[in-house]
Amino acid sequence: MISSRALIRIGHQVRPQHIVTRLRCTRFTAPSISAPKSRLLSQSLPTLRKRRNDPEDEQPTSKSSSAADSAPEDPLDFSSLISAYAPIDTHFRAQLSTIAHGGRFNPDHLGSLNVPVKVDGEDMGSFPLRELAQVVPRSGRTISLLVNDREYIKPIMSAVQSSPDFNQQPQRSEDNDLELLLRVEMQRKDEVLRRIKETAQAWRDRVRQARAKHDKQIKDWKKAGTILPDVAKRADKELQKLQDKKIKEIDGEETQTVRALDRN
């Protein structure tokens, strides 16, 4: 028999007290079912990270970055072209100066002659003549080569004789075993003028080639839509002005070289 104290009346039903206690314990432990929610949340994180690294999502950013890199900061800035002109100018000015002051037999030009050297049958490499001998102009249209070592005499003689610029065999000096003598050949004036004209024209061609590379870049910008057609047209006009100025400068250098030749 269950005592009356052990009974609890709920509505019209009567339940034992230990059943109610069991129900209370069940409600107390019920919050444990929230644990799977935490696991579900942790399982969903990789999915979120994967979506952030989706290449399709990053593609527009990559394209916009590429377009920004290819876009010019100032399409009317020609400093890169002007910088490209500098080494060209230096090269051809030196050539014109060499022609005007002795031509092929200019000491600087002769000193740059490449001389292959062999010592006791062993290849030692090639050296500029100026590193193997002193180039000294003498009176009477003669150039003296004061050789640094006896081992260099035959290589120098061979290099000078085989060079199309000189095409002569240096002569041994009677007074100095380490001295070679070169005879400076007279150059016809019309031949020198022809060489000056050819050098100046080659200079102009190099300038035009440098400008053509910049023209292509502007056309690429225009085709890609990074610059407006009006800006491209203006850039072309400015480039033409820059080229005309450089060509005029070359004309002046050619004229000065011819005048220097007449004075000599």
Automatic annotation (TrEMBL):
GO cellular component, as recorded: mitochondrion
SUPFAM superfamilies named in the record: Ribosome recycling factor, RRF
Keywords annotated in UniProt: Protein biosynthesis
InterPro entries: Ribosome_recyc_fac, Ribosome_recyc_fac_dom, RRF_sf
The Ribosome recycling factor domain, residue ranges: 93-253
One MF annotation (Gene Ontology) recorded for this entry: ribosomal large subunit binding
Domain of life, per lineage: Eukaryota
GO biological process, one term: translation
Protein family according to the UniProt entry: Belongs to the RRF family.
Database matches in PANTHER family: MITOCHONDRIAL RIBOSOME RECYCLING FACTOR PSEUDO 1, RIBOSOME RECYCLING FACTOR
Purpose of the protein: Necessary for protein synthesis in mitochondria. Functions as a ribosome recycling factor in mitochondria.
Name of protein: Ribosome recycling factor domain-containing protein
